[in-house]
Amino acid sequence: MRKKTKNKKGFSIAEVMISSFVLVVGLTAIISLLIENIKQSVDIRSSIISSQLAQEGVELVRNIRDNNLVNEDAFLNNLPDSDEDDCIIDAIYGLNKGNGPEACGSYDTKLYMNNSLGFYGHSGSAFSGFRRKIIFSDFEDSSGDGNVDNFSIASMVVWDINASSFPDLSDCNSGNKCTYVKDLLTDH
Q: What is the full DSSP assignment across 38-102?
C-alpha cells in the first residue's frame, strides 16, 4: 500500500490576514489621496472663477466710465464720486446708487448663477458660493481744477460659501478664499 501524502495548497489564515491588512491600508491611502485631490480641484476651480469675477467687476466699472467718456457725460456719471460705501455690480444690472440689486451701501453681495443667461448676478435663486463687492477709493483732483480726475477701484470676490463678511483688502488671499483686482481709473 502506498502512503498518501497530503498536498498542502492554499494560504494560512495568518497570510490571508496580513495580505488583507496591506490591501486595506493601501486602498485607504489611495482613497484619501483621491478625496484630497478632489477638494483641491474644487478649490482651484473656485479660485479661477473668483479671479475672473473680480476682473469682471473692474471691467464693468471701466465700461461705465468709457461709456461716459464716449457720450461726453461727466466722468463719474453713475459712479460714486467719493469714498462711499462699497458697491455691487453685475453684467445684468450694471451699477447705480439706487435701491435695486445694483447699489452702493447696504446690499446683498451674494452672486447667483442665472442659468437662462449664463451670467453671475446679484439676484436669483441658486447661490453660487461667490460674493463680490466693488471698493471705490483714493479720489484725486491731480489737475487742481476742483474735479475728480482719477480714483482707485478694487473688485473683491470671496468664494467661501459660509463667509458672511469680507476680509480687509490687505488680508485678501487664497488662504482666506478671497481674491481681488485693483486698478486706477482716470478721466481719459
A: HHHHHHHHHHHHHHHHHHHHHHHHHHHHHHHHHTT--TTTTS-SSS-S-B--BTTTB--SSSSSS
